[in-house]
Amino acid sequence: MSELIITDLHVDVETESGPKQILNGVTLRVGTGEVHAIMGPNGSGKSTLAYAIAGHPKYRITSGSVTLDGVELTELGVAERAKAGLFLAMQYPIEVPGVPTTNFLRTAATALSGQAPKVRTWAKQVNEAMGRVGLDPSFAARSLNEGFSGGEKKRNEIVQLDLLNPAFAILDEIDSGLDIDALRVVAEGINRFAAQGTEGSDQHSVLLITHYTRILNYVRPTFVHVFVGGQVVASGGPELAEQLEAEGYDRFVQAAADA
Q1: What pTM does this model have?
Q2: What CATH number did the domain enclosing 17 receive?
Q3: 221 in Cβ contact with 241 (< 8 Å)
Q4: Is residue 144 part of a domain?
Q5: Each residue of 140-199: pLDDT tens digit?
Q6: Is 112 inside any structural domain?
Q7: How does DSSP assign the chain, residue by residue?
């Protein structure tokens, strides 16, 4: 299984003036093998949802529950959530000077499995994963994300997804800043991940956070959810994304303001 269940989630974020509530009772279920797209305007709480689930210390869960295959994530630290099968691709992947990409990936894989991959086979796996997203193998020896373009950083997130093979992936605006070629490559990586399984599971599950529908032309979601004011205000199939492309978010924002 790779089922994520979010129940009545409330989250505060720390600001200079004190805590500010961002999420106001999010309830969502992403079943095994499903791809759910969360769309909404800037400031609606989409990224807050991603970071709160992953355990970022800036985002404090004040009430509610998040379980992954029955494991209560809110009771676990960041590393334990990753070991439970959770993966987060960040909107702005950070640079880590002095840490070669291949070393970072091997350390992460070791932490997740409890056993270090063999050096010879690992180098081959890294090179193959980079080849699948169009990155030159020389990137493996470079410091993690240092000097990478925006598109190269996002491709490298897919490399991590490929090699670490989590049960459940949260992809926070992984399409932002990508040209059309990079978008296709990243989308192919997402589809490849979603179609393959982990031990005991037929398929992975994905929560894809995005502003735009263009990536959904390549990654077909099972469900689409509209996020406004820290809540899910509408849900539907892929046709909802097409409606948003044609009409925008205004009527959902207005309806939330009138409620």
Answers
A1: 0.93
A2: 3.40.50.300
A3: yes
A4: no
A5: 999 999 999 999 999 999 999 999 999 999 999 999 989 999 999 999 999 999 988 645
A6: no
A7: ---EEEEEEEEEEEETTEEEEEEEEEEEEE-TT-EEEEE--TTSSHHHHHHHHHT-TTEEEEEEEEEETTEEGGGS-HHHHHHTTEEEE-SSPPPEEEEEHHHHHHHHHHHHHSSPPPHHHHHHHHHHHHHHTT--GGGGGSEETTT--HHHHHHHHHHHHHHH--SEEEEESTTTT--HHHHHHHHHHHHHHHHS--TT-SS-EEEEEES-SGGGGTS--SEEEEEETTEEEEEESHHHHHHHHHH-SHHHHHHHHH-
Residue range(s) defining the domain that contains residue 92: 4-99+167-258
Asked if residue 182 belongs to a domain, the reply is yes
Distance CA 105, CA 80 (A): 17
Residue from 14, 26, 15, 91 nearest 53 by CA: 26
What is the total count of domains within the chain?
A: 1
Is residue 75 one of the residues assigned to a domain? yes
Total length of the chain: 259
List pLDDT tens digits, range 19-58: 899 999 999 999 999 999 999 998 899 999 999 999 999 9
Structure tokens at 206: 């994905």
